[in-house]
Amino acid sequence: PPKKKDIRDYNDADMARLLEQWEKDDDIEEGDLPEHKRPAAPIDFSKIDPGKPESILKLTKKGKTLMMFVTVSGNPSEKETEEITSLWQGSLFNANYDVQRFIVGSNRAIFMLRDGGYAWEIKDFLINQERCADVTLEGQVYPGKGADGSEKVKNKTKPEKAKKKKDAEKKSNGVKEDNRATKQREEL
């Protein structure tokens, strides 16, 4: 058992132990828990539109942190990307969206949202900006207003690019391999 010490004789280690004892007995409020320990919000299935898969994602991401990647069109410098995305962040802030921005390349930025339920509204805002080439959200790539003709393919996904590269490599090596259920006949 620890000896009884006068409170005036406590050092930093004694104060730290005392604080740990107090916190051990405290009940932590649900809002103070880290996100991964909070219980999931109940989903109201009456609000889900079966024709729109995005409505399901909106409801499941509500209250959770979510990140989206944004590409600035043209060939901007990192400083120019910083300025453009700062304007977008300011506009979103003025519309009461809590968004943090991180520059990850000369033309790429990450927008981090505290509440993922608003991600699709923010995505709609961003793709309507003149200098937005594309927005990547939950694996889906949405082309923006600033995308050139080769980039304007609706809802392409990132893994397809890697698959196309692999297919091109196979064809260049002379190996004709297909993973489809029905093969097309090739003329020799």
From TrEMBL:
Ranges for the region named Disordered are 23-47, 140-188
Which family does the UniProt entry place this protein in?
Belongs to the MESD family.
Q: Name one Pfam family in it.
A: Mesd
Origin species, per record, is Elachura formosa (spotted wren-babbler)
The name on file for this protein is: LRP chaperone MESD
Give the matching PANTHER family: LRP CHAPERONE MESD, MESODERM DEVELOPMENT CANDIDATE 2
Entry-linked InterPro entries = MESD (IPR019330)
> Which compartment or compartments is the protein found in?
Endoplasmic reticulum
